[in-house]
Amino acid sequence: MLKTTSDFLGMKRNGEKITMLTAYDYPTAKFAEEAGIDMVLVGDSVGMVVLGYDSTVLVTMDDMIHHGKAARKGSPNTFLVVDMPFGTYHGSLDQSLTNAVKIMQQTNAQAVKVEGADDVLPVIQKLTSAGIPVIAHLGLTPQSAGVLGGYKVQGKTVEAAEKLIEDAKKCELAGACSVVLECIPFQLTEKVSASLTIPTIGIGAGVSADGQVLVFHDMVKYGTHHVPKFVHEFANVGVSIVEGISQYVQDVKNETFPAEKHSFTMKEDQLQQLYG
Ligand code: KIV
Ligand code: NA
Question: Cis peptide leading into 122, omega within 30 of 0?
């Protein structure tokens, strides 16, 4: 059944872990719902794992809406979160709201996700007061990889850790319904999670987050060449896909495919008339 933000608060209170997985299309979202995922994330990671870009910076509103619509169709009964892409919530607050409303209305999502604190805090507040549930995203924020100097673990020093704890509290205060924590030391995750009422959802952030999120293509090894240290390979579909395609190539070359059972035929009298 479609859970709500208050269900997730309750899950945190009761110590029940929240599961989130990315999906960017109909079949994946359908698989996720079938498997009992609590939240489907149409992440801007779509740019990297589906569109082949080298960062999430190139992802557009149209990309997110295109994939969001497809994912919605596949998981109609799962809480759907759509990432706001790079640059779409850093102009005026009004422009940020316009973009978030567009995503919500065109994808029928339950929430949007934005990266960072600081200048993004007023955005979280603005969207939340407009009725849009917002998930914050702290630690390694891929849209800022250029400024961070790459995809590195964050919050490793006292100073950085203290800032992250404060940022997380500010996100909660601004109205965020959850906070994604990406690539931070597990001890910091424990501290942040204990400091908040809203659930934390970790990726590369250890076991003490209130929930976990992974990128679908990474966890089933579907076309990804570099998989980060924090990902467990829960399946390896890439291998069976290549095996299947190679078999197809072979069978076409040696004429074992298509077989008679894959072919259509004509009635005998029609054949007679055709060939005499
Ligand atoms: O885009 C994405 O997949 C994400 C998750 C890694 C949290 O933001
Ligand atoms: Na993202």
Answer: no
| CATH number for region 5-235 | 3.20.20.60
- pTM of this prediction exceeds 0.90: yes
Query: What per-residue confidence (pLDDT) applies to 276?
Result: 78
CA–centroid distance, residue 43 to ligand 2 (Å) = 4
Q: Who contacts 143 (Cβ-Cβ below 8 Å, separation ≥6)?
A: 44, 56, 57, 85, 86, 115, 116
Verify whether ligand 1 is closer than 6 Å to residue 178 (CB atom).
Answer: no
Active-site entry in 34, 172, 182, 260: 182
pLDDT, residue 1, reads: 82
pLDDT < 70 stretches in the chain: none
**Which residues of the chain form CATH 3.20.20.60?**
5-235
**ipTM value of the model?**
0.99
pLDDT tens readout for residues 190-204:
999 999 999 999 999
